[in-house]
């Protein structure tokens, strides 16, 4: 079986359609279709059921997909071991974390890391959906909830505190609440409650000091903490935000500073097979150094 065709097959199976796979592979839909047809002809087996809404793997396709996944996984392990036999860290290092933590705190510090380790090919994936580290979708995860996969190494990275913030523009127009009960009369921006919450207590702003007979109605729900941050900066209302997101030079003011929100635990997570990886070790040490300097 041709390896290029197997690579294309693997991407199509993951994407569920030629169109979505084409965006990843930078190939036209017709080119991908020809390669899949050629692969099916070479092994005399149909790999996909084709229907109007996309593709579904046949039983034989499922078998081949699992095998190809395992092979690619083993190749990635070999690549890691070969590159980590050198005296200095080099080779690919793919890190995933949430959009808010990655875009506001981590990304500005990556410049220093890549200058310290120029031979590490660093990639950062920002997503509020957890990637499967066991299948090497990424090498390291920085997560705001405990990992659910049992075959991952994890260490508690830090505790992130949360407070209420509002823009100076909003506070000038609407006044500054003096007690938690005053939040009943303010516009609140919260996390969308019809979506998986990044932490069970993320919407504590709706409950603290609230009148039990009149539920607070937020002015906006957003399914992303960074989106909430941008809405608050625009002057829309008040929101509970992690303190790490608030640089000194923005127009946000901490409201009711004595009112501490629930802490968010952050975890450094990676697969067991990367336990002895130099790249993982140097990035972990770099991260701990930057956290210590940040005075969380």
- Assembly state here? single chain
Tell me the overall shape.
globular
Helix-strand category = alpha/beta
Count up the domains: 3
Rg for CA atoms:
24 Å
CATH hierarchy: architecture of the largest domain: 3-Layer(aba) Sandwich
Report the β-strand fraction as a percent range.
15-25%
The average pLDDT score comes to: 88
Question: Which CATH class of the largest domain is shown?
Answer: Alpha Beta
Low-confidence runs: none
End-to-end CA span: 53 Å
Strand order of the largest sheet: 4-3-5-12-6
**Helix and strand run:** HHHEEHEHEEEEHEEHEEEH
Largest sheet: 5 strands, mixed
- The number of helices is 8
Helix content: 25-40%
From the structure above, extract its key features.
single chain, 296 residues, alpha/beta, Arc Repressor Mutant, subunit A, D-Maltodextrin-Binding Protein, domain 2, 3 domains, three-stranded antiparallel β-sheet, 8 helices, 12 strands, 38% helix, 21% strand, globular
List the helices and strands and how they pair.
Layout: H1 3-15, H2 18-25, H3 29-43, E1 48-51, E2 54-57, H4 59-83, E3 91-97, H5 99-116, E4 120-126, E5 140-143, E6 152-160, E7 162-167, H6 168-174, E8 189-191, E9 220-222, H7 225-233, E10 239-242, E11 252-255, E12 264-271, H8 278-294
Parallel strand pairs: 3-4, 3-5, 8-9
Antiparallel strand pairs: 1-2, 5-12, 6-12, 7-10, 7-11
Helix pairs in contact: 1-2, 1-3, 1-4, 2-3
């Amino acid at each position: 079986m041709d390896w290029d065709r197997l690579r294309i097959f693997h991407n199509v199976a993951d994407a569920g359609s030629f169109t979505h796979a084409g965006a990843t592979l930078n190939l036209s839909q017709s080119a991908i279709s020809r390669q899949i047809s050629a692969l099916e002809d070479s092994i005399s087996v149909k790999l996909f059921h084709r229907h109007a809404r996309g593709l579904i793997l046949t039983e034989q396709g499922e078998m081949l997909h699992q095998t190809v996944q395992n092979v690619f996984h083993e190749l990635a392990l070999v690549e890691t071991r070969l590159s980590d036999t050198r005296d200095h860290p080099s080779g690919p290092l793919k890190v995933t974390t949430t959009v808010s933590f990655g875009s506001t705190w981590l990304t500005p510090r990556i410049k220093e890391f890549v200058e310290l380790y120029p031979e590490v090919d660093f990639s950062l994936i920002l997503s509020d959906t957890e990637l499967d580290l066991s299948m090497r979708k990424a090498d390291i995860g920085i997560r705001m909830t405990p990992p659910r996969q049992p075959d991952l190494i994890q260490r508690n990275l830090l505790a992130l505190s949360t407070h209420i913030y509002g823009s100076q523009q909003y506070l000038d127009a609407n006044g500054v609440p003096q007690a938690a009960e005053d939040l009943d009369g303010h516009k609140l921006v919260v996390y969308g409650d019809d979506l998986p919450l990044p932490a069970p207590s993320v919407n504590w702003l709706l409950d603290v000091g609230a009148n039990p007979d009149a539920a607070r109605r937020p002015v906006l729900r957003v399914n992303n903490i960074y989106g909430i941050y941008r809405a608050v900066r625009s002057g829309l209302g008040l929101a509970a935000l992690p303190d790490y997101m608030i640089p000194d030079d923005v127009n946000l003011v901490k409201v009711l500073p004595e009112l501490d929100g629930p802490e968010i635990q952050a975890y450094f997570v990676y697969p067991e097979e990367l336990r002895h990886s130099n790249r993982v070790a140097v990035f972990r040490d770099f991260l701990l150094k930057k956290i210590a300097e940040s005075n969380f």
